[in-house]
Amino acid sequence: MLGEIIEIPQLGNERGSLSVVEAGKLIPFEIKRVYYIYGTKPGVERGFHAHKVLQQLAVAVSGACDMVLDDGRKQKTVRLDSPSHGVRIGPGIWHVMSNFSKDCVLLVFADAHYDESDYIRDYDAFTTWISK
Ligand code: TYD
Prior knowledge:
There is one protein chain. The chain has one helix spanning 123-130, and strands spanning 5-7, 10-13, 16-19, 33-38, 46-51, 56-62, 65-70, 75-80, 85-89, 94-98, 105-110, 119-120. By secondary structure, it is mainly β. The protein has a five-stranded antiparallel sheet, with no helix packed on it. The protein has a five-stranded antiparallel sheet with strand order 8-7-10-5-12.
């Protein structure tokens, strides 16, 4: 489903909160890489790519940003503003992030190591690739 939101349970008590993402349980893929996007300058948009096979889950663990997801037929915008909600970014999804708050830390879980050859960074190439 385009822009599927995964609920990440909030554990915790009067001391504060804790959330857990376990591979194969909360998300149906193994986690091979974790990266985080932060300190994004005001007005900056990021992303502008799709992946051929990579699966990811993105969570704004601090602050907020918007993500537009596009499967070549339809688009969906999700607001990421909670450590207890993640959005799945499957293969073949063009995605663009914008409206980053100053304190935004976007944490991303990925099922493979970084591989530039898995990226499609041109929108026309993406629509050609997706329609094959
Ligand atoms: P890029 O994908 O362009 O970031 P964004 O989509 O947020 O605009 O990545 C920025 C740079 O970081 C680019 O040179 C690739 C590099 N990079 C890695 O080396 N490893 C990684 O796991 C990621 C996600 C990016």
